[in-house]
Inverse folding.
């Protein structure tokens, strides 16, 4: 994370009382310190500034420039901490502790109090992979915005087959009830067992690989894992190398007998005396020597030679597995959103 520079006022040498020159110096010093505090105030405030993603998916970049490579994504309604500003760009930290740059127009900047009000207001969660918010209760009316699975909007009311919803910037529209659920109902019905999570993973089959993607619009390998779990209200670290340090590490038996569906598989290069182990890819284990991952697009493959979809390349770089699901809300970096401080 970016370090915030702190300022410590200098201390002066005591001057004799009644010394006119000294009094003038003291007044000048007080004026200088007052001006310095005013100049530093925006920097102090920036450290406490927050935002809420205001579009279906915002792309985050390595640097504050259109030409910079994509790092990740953040979804509508997601709280972010604003850590820096450069012209039209904001540097933001997402709930998975990932820091990157995004366009300021895609984030509604708010105070901590306003963020708390957003988090505690009635909301709906988009449960369809793709949907549309309309200006009226009709698919023939003008579009307000697209939405994707995992997006969250404020619930204004219920109007027949539609929910009346509001965006962080105050725009309002109507979202068909088949595409979303009120957040409390969603959490009550939500299952976080391995088979339910793998059904969600398979629902993303065919979604294209996109470097930096963490949404149904496109996913990289770790973004696929992150997106699948986020659709079950679970936050996990962003990158494969970070995900590899969560849960319980498992050395994989030759016949995969010590693995269970829902474990994460990690791939890369083994370490030796001259270089450390390097994780570059991640997948969900689905059982019977099979896994699902994002490589070109989301798809299943096999680690067993002789299977029609045997993946020799990834079998050759398989490193280890991690059992993550039992450690949600029990280990740092693994949260459900209602337990995460950004969502308080």
């Amino acid at each position: 994370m970016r370090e915030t520079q702190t300022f410590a006022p200098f201390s002066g040498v005591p001057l004799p009382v009644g010394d006119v020159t000294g009094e003038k110096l003291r007044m000048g010093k007080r004026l200088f310190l007052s001006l310095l505090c005013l100049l530093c105030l925006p920097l102090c405030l920036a450290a406490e500034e927050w935002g809420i993603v205001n579009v279906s998916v915002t792309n985050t970049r390595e640097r504050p420039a259109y030409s910079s490579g994509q790092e990740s994504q953040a979804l509508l309604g997601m709280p972010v901490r604003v850590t820096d500003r450069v012209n039209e760009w904001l540097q933001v930290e997402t709930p998975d502790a990932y820091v990157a740059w995004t366009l300021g127009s895609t984030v509604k900047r708010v105070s901590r109090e306003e963020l708390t009000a957003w988090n505690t207001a009635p909301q709906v969660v988009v449960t369809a992979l793709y949907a549309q918010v309309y200006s009226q209760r009709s698919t023939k009316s003008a579009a307000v915005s697209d939405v994707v699975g995992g997006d969250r909007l404020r619930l204004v009311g219920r109007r027949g087959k539609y929910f009346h919803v509001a965006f962080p910037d105050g725009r309002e529209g109507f979202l068909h009830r088949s595409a979303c659920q009120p957040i409390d109902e969603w959490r009550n019905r939500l299952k976080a067992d391995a088979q339910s999570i793998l059904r969600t993973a398979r629902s993303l089959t065919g979604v294209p690989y996109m470097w930096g993607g963490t949404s149904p619009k496109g996913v990289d390998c770790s973004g696929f894992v992150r997106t699948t779990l986020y659709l079950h209200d679970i936050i996990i670290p962003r990158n494969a190398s970070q995900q590899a340090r969560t849960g319980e590490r498992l050395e994989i038996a030759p016949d995969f007998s010590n693995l269970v569906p829902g474990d994460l598989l990690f791939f890369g290069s083994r370490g030796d005396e001259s270089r450390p182990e390097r994780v570059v890819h991640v997948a969900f284990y689905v059982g019977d020597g099979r896994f699902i991952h994002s490589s070109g697009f989301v798809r299943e493959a096999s680690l067993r030679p002789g299977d029609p979809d045997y993946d020799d390349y990834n079998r050759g770089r398989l490193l280890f597995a991690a059992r993550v699901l039992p450690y949600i809300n029990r280990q740092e970096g693994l949260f459900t959103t209602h337990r995460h401080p950004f969502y308080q």
